[in-house]
Amino acid sequence: MRRKRFQRGSLKPRKRNGKNYWYAQWRENGKPRSKELGLCSKVSRPEAEAKLAEILYPQNLQAGQLVTPIYTFGQFIEVIYLPVYRRKWKPSTAATEENRLTANLVPDLGPILMTEITRGALQKLLDTKATTHATSMVAHLRFRLRSIFELAMSEGVVDRNPATALYTPRQCQPSQPRRVLTSEEAAQLIGALDLREKLIARLATWEGMRPGEILALQVGDVDGSSVWVRRRLYRGLIDTPKTKRSYRQVALSQGTLTLLSAWLQEVGTTNPEAWLFSTENNTPIWRNNVWLRNMQPKLKAIGLDWATFQVMRRTFATLSKQAGVDAHTRSAQMGNTVNVNENEYAISSFEDRLAAVRRLETNVVQ
Description:
This protein is mainly alpha-helical. It is about 50% helix and about 10% strand. The chain has 15 helices and 8 strands. The chain has helices at about 45-60, 75-85, 90-105, 105-110, 120-130, 135-155, 185-190, 195-205, 210-215, 255-265, 285-300, 310-320, 325-335, 340-345, 350-365; strands at about 10-15, 20-30, 30-40, 220-225, 225-230, 230-235, 235-240, 250. Helix 12 (about 310-320) packs antiparallel against helix 13 (about 325-335). It is elongated and about 80 Å long. It starts with 9 loop residues before the first strand and ends with a helix.
């Protein structure tokens, strides 16, 4: 049997019915084959070349010759990058990152072959994004580009990473101010809400919990002067905590304990698997629902509708720091990181965190 030959095929524009199409030709089992790959006005040459390479890939593998995969940026994102990273990302991360890719990178880089993308082109793209986006967004895009080309190198799609030397431009758009509540505003916020929302807001502002952690609490997670973070809620889906450090015992201030006791009486169940904040259908309430329906309207009446859950959590970190709580204890309470030294070597006990939130409470106007 004759050994199969490596093929590159032929790709040319061909007119049909007054329109130009990409016309591909190759041989399969000794017979000529052809196929139109799309209108020239809608499919770029690199995209057509990548489609032809995909057609020829199985045959060239049988030819016994190493085949270098050919992808445009858009094809690589869809076929390789997203399937790999979807297995790694949590749903909340996936929603954010996929939107960031499809809205900011694929429109500009999608039709270009991966092998033809240069460092200069990528830096120019970041410079352009800096005219309309804040530093944090542009920095995220730079990080994502490095990640994309690192995976492309490991897959043999490119032989170098053009994103390695990228930098975040200095002339980015200014970021929105990172606002926090004063102690007086925090007390005013709590006072404007009903019991359930008071407790939710206290857990975010006085205990530093994420909204998804709060709304995923079950009655059995209440443990004396603390609650355990064992899961989180995202758009109706129950998931594991955000990180390993997020699985934790959260110390409760005295004011929060008082509200929690009153709320447990109103809930009227001791079933440990019952949701602490549930709907009429006994499912956890969604963050947007409780915020838009029950919290934001009342906060708007007192001029504090800007105090979102993110602001509340940031307020905890700021007021705790002002109250003299050390950085590691703050991070242990919030379930995030500070720096390598504190995260890898220092240990914060539950007793330290309990004393910290009690100390915070004495420094905040009730």
